[in-house]
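Lab manual, section 2.4: Encoding a predicted structure.

Procedure: take the sequence of the chain (197 residues), apply the prediction step described in section 2.3, and record the output as structure tokens. A sample record is shown.
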Amino acid sequence: MTAPAELPVWATDNTNNGEPSSGQKNSGWAVNQFIVSSYFNWWMNLVYQWINYLSSGVDAGWHDQTPVGVPSAANATFANGRWTFGTGVSASYLTPIAVQPRVGEVITDVRVKGGYGSFNVGSGEFVVTFYKTTGNGSPTSLHAFDLSSTADTATTSFTLSSPETVVDGTTYYFDVQCTGVGTGGFHLASVGHKIGA
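Recorded output:
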């Protein structure tokens, strides 16, 4: 769906805009009631202001979230704002972390805050994947972060090779998989996506 070419500009000089009383707002117009022009102008101008605000990229920028949900392995615990995948991990992962951008928004970048604890492990042992599903289709990976050699307080970001325009029926997720074995554990504080202006 394409946005209209112009905004519904109305009564921007505020010369005849009067806010109705709370009682009038609550009851609305009565049958056969004369509509006061200043009230109507106030309402139409408010609608214009909101549409202008919402169409100006209000959601642009980063949207980070702390992963929540029940881990599927007992050696994943949550404390102090981050998940810890513990000592001797052989296979551990969180319930996929859902991302809910609005239809029409464009995802340009993704990022993860987290990494290994006190040890450096092999490649591919701590991976966070950003992917999408459409309808009942198979997941499509958009980017995978290998955090196996990243410090646990680092923020790693990546610009998608092709900006992802959100369409109706598509759901986005971050999937966390940890298969490393060590003594220091892995940490994950947040995942995020960036909406282009």
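Check your result against the sample. The chain has a mean pLDDT of 82.
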